[in-house]
Amino acid sequence: MQGTLHYIIMNAHTPSVFPRAGVLAIVRRGCNFLLVRRSNAPDAGLWGFPGGKVEGGEAFFRAAERELMEETSIPAQATSLIDVFDSVHYAPDGTLAFHYLILAVLCTEPQPALALPIAGDDAQEVRWFSYEEISQLGQQASARLYTIAQTIMRAQNQP
Description:
Layout: H1 2-11, E1 20-29, E2 32-38, E3 47-48, E4 51-53, H2 60-72, E5 77-90, E6 96-108, E7 123-130, H3 131-135, H4 145-155
Parallel strand pairs: 1-6
Antiparallel strand pairs: 1-2, 1-4, 2-3, 2-7, 5-6
């Protein structure tokens, strides 16, 4: 049986791009969410939660805190995992371009939360959005932005 399994694994089509881990750092201040407008593909020009790649040897909570600081200059502590989902993109010829497992992490600012966000790293802009403003972004929003915000609003018993 083990020889058969080895044969199947060795002969299965294996894409040249393996899944990597990425994080989103979700911060709320009052009723507002901190968002960035991305500079780079695949979401260039779209609004979304700050985030990026998990580096080798880095815990995903630490990665969320680091990415948040790099993109917004806002210090916060990662506190809980909100969602996990796939981000799979293909090249025009149909080959796999990249595959990320995205971990959406809720982060809490120290109190009192006074830091002003400043766009950095791959963020064109950074600002606070109400849930209503997020729901009106439409095509200007990254995938899952609205559903993640909605999940957090429901978990915190807010309509």
